[in-house]
Amino acid sequence: MGLLRFLILALFSGSVHAGFVHPGLMHTQADFTRMAQKVSAKASPWIDTYNVLLSNSHSSLSYSPNPQAWAERGSGCADNSFYVMNDAAAAYQLALVWKITGNTSYADKAVSILNGWASTLKGIGCNASTSWDYWLMAGTQGYQFANAAEIMRNYSGFSASNLAAFQSLMRNVWYPICHAVLPFGLNVYANWDLGCIAQIMAIGVLTDNSTMFNEAVTYFKTGAGNGAAQKVAYYIHPGYYGQCQEAGRDQGHNTLDVSHLTVIAQQAWNQGVDLYGYSNNRILAISEHTSKGNLIDNSTNNFYTVPYVQYVYDSWPTEYWQYTFANGSQGLNRPTWGCIYHHYVNVKGLAAPFTGKQLALQTPENGGQGCCSGGYDQLGFESLTCALDPIPSGAAPSGLTAVFLNGKVLLSWWGSAYATSYVVQRGTASGGPYSTTLASGITDPRSYEDSGMSAGTYYYIVRANSTSGPASNQVSITTGNPLIAYYKFDETSGTSASDSSGNGYTATLSGSTSFVSGRINNGVKLDGSSGYVSLPTTLLNQLGDFTIATWVYVSSSSSWQRLFDFGFGTGRYMFFTTHSSNGSAEFVITYNSGGDSTQKLFISNTTQSSLPLNTWTHIAITHFGTQTWLFLNGQIVNVNNYQYLHPYQIPGSTDLPAQYWIGRSQYSGDAYLNGIVDDFRIYAGCLSASSVQSLASMSG
Ligand SMILES: *[C@@H]1O[C@H](CO)[C@@H](O)[C@H](O)[C@H]1NC(C)=O
Ligand SMILES: *[C@@H]1O[C@H](CO)[C@@H](O)[C@H](O)[C@H]1NC(C)=O
Ligand SMILES: *[C@@H]1O[C@H](CO)[C@@H](O)[C@H](O)[C@H]1NC(C)=O
Ligand SMILES: *[C@@H]1O[C@H](CO)[C@@H](O)[C@H](O)[C@H]1NC(C)=O
Ligand SMILES: *[C@@H]1O[C@H](CO)[C@@H](O)[C@H](O)[C@H]1NC(C)=O
Ligand SMILES: *[C@@H]1O[C@H](CO)[C@@H](O)[C@H](O)[C@H]1NC(C)=O
Ligand SMILES: *[C@@H]1O[C@H](CO)[C@@H](O)[C@H](O)[C@H]1NC(C)=O
Ligand SMILES: *[C@@H]1O[C@H](CO)[C@@H](O)[C@H](O)[C@H]1NC(C)=O
Ligand SMILES: *[C@@H]1O[C@H](CO)[C@@H](O)[C@H](O)[C@H]1NC(C)=O
């Protein structure tokens, strides 16, 4: 084909995007081949779940569909979502039976449902009230219908014009609803976003539209709403337990988040995009936390306790405070764990023990019918569609990280599929030997706290099963409250500031800056309109406990000017402002755009709540475990005893690069710092009050 002809085709056919795999949403042709083989061999669990599928009324050749011209969902609406949900489930289930058996009666039935909706449905919404629930339906049932049509797309009885009509329905009626709401990052619960991400991705594949597919992937990576990767996993606890955004709401919604995340990741994986592994397996972190929190611990006959930090759902103008892992609907039997389990365990070789226990409990599982208040929120049957034979042995433990917390070194790692336990070893030289075995027999959580050693640099590995088992990556950390970065700003010219800690974290000056006489030798002067200093963004990677200490000479009382602001986007950051809205200087750390609003420290018990102008002030923030202290000129001026947010969860990603700035805010509208900064220090670990006092008494 000549280039010109190719271009003309690309312009007019609308579907020349090369490379979409078909069928390529939740299941590929290889998956269907495996299902058919396992079912015909009567192998468990496939055959058991297949039998549940066959006996489900939505898989029946006598199923009676009800296409609607106008589909509504929500209180106050003429809610007919029941028909939408049932017919989407039926179309999918009949399509599955056809692919597994080859019996075209099922294919014809599935096609009649799809054709019925394609010729009947004109719109989705809510006429009579302001309920937005139709948005949920557009997302969840949208991806379900698209999955059914994707399976049917090469059936000879689903003609090219049938497929085109159904593609047109998805593109013109379903897609615009999700497309209209996703970009705004509205502060809705995560499921609202996630259903729409799944829908847009599914319609992109169904209609061979890479713009749509990329829209979904990009939103998942960098979106502003609660469905985006960083926000849906609000907090990563030790051992990589990921607290989902809806964990404190109720377990119906929390487990539905796992279901939606699975659809997004599975569909993307089948198109060669790895969202399962994205941002350090964030989805696995959520699945393990959610599955564990919904399981009974046989040793206590009660639900397992999972770690939880309070979450503030900031639905303006109301804030909902969620203090515990919610017990509403706890232990519900959502048929959702099969695809996620088999991907992580039998494709990646990682451990997913509690996801696996949930899956075992639900197998053989049903579809939408029979679970959960709304019903039909997931397609189900995953131990038929996604189950894989066990791999011979797992990957080595991986993702080992070390951070300072509670005065200890906290290690976390990903486990190895089928490993029975883990061994933690320590050495004093890079590459080993790791001659100190700190612990063995670790099962859960996959974390370890090391303490009591003398100041120095230590190297850790974790092994699966035994001291001779496969080893993880090595991680190193230096104890004894070392300086991580130290900017004396004693230069006289140029646009870089050297790091006197020895770690080589050279800072870069931008905008209008100059080196002037400071508190101790020189300092960096920032002009209040363009000048700031950028620090390397790996600085915080190991900081749970930390100390930041600096001298500042403030020349303006502009609101929100930042002494420093370390974060990414306007969702996750920590900053110190010399002048907040009411005039107080304040330290803030948030993972949720300020939603977690107790995480602030004002200057509280002195007469001076804002920073004095045109004089040198020493500011220090120290943090140990869940306590933070704010120091002004060496005196403690406020303490927060429940500050559960730590800097090490702030570093961004390649998609959301972090910005660590002195003198500039993450929010572009805020004032730049007008003043001089000198002797800016970041320490690993929490300095004592007397150490802070001696920093505050230094002068040049
Ligand atoms: C793909 O979808 C986008 C977003 O709706 C649309 O603007 C574009 O025209 C579509 N491309 C094709 C080739 O249909
Ligand atoms: C297809 O399935 C239906 C219902 O089970 C059955 O009656 C029919 O005989 C099957 N057709 C073939 C060709 O096996
Ligand atoms: C809702 O509004 C749409 C668009 O105006 C219309 O087609 C539909 O018939 C209405 N549905 C009901 C139940 O009033
Ligand atoms: C549908 O796709 C499968 C897998 O590629 C193939 O085996 C089958 O022949 C196709 N059917 C039609 C009608 O194209
Ligand atoms: C609890 O015991 C039952 C019965 O032996 C078993 O099926 C289940 O897997 C156990 N649950 C967990 C979480 O280990
Ligand atoms: C469920 O959680 C609520 C709120 O934390 C609590 O008041 C209630 O006692 C819990 N119920 C049970 C059965 O644990
Ligand atoms: C650990 O031991 C279990 C049980 O013997 C075995 O199934 C698994 O493959 C082992 N894992 C590794 C990584 O060697
Ligand atoms: C500013 O607001 C905070 C939080 O409400 C309060 O603690 C602080 O005292 C206030 N400062 C002034 C100067 O009003
Ligand atoms: C402020 O209050 C804290 C906590 O009560 C106390 O430790 C500190 O000494 C007080 N600082 C001043 C300057 O009064």
TrEMBL record:
One of its GO terms (molecular function) is lyase activity. Keywords: Disulfide bond, Lyase, Signal. It comes from Acrobeloides nanus. Residues 1-18 form the signal peptide. It comes from the Eukaryota. InterPro entries: Alginate_lyase_dom (IPR008397), Chondroitin_lyas (IPR008929), ConA-like_dom_sf (IPR013320), FN3_sf (IPR036116), Ig-like_fold (IPR013783), LamG-like (IPR006558). It holds the Pfam family Laminin_G_3. This is LamG-like jellyroll fold domain-containing protein. Residues 544-690 form the LamG-like jellyroll fold domain. The keyword Disulfide bond applies.
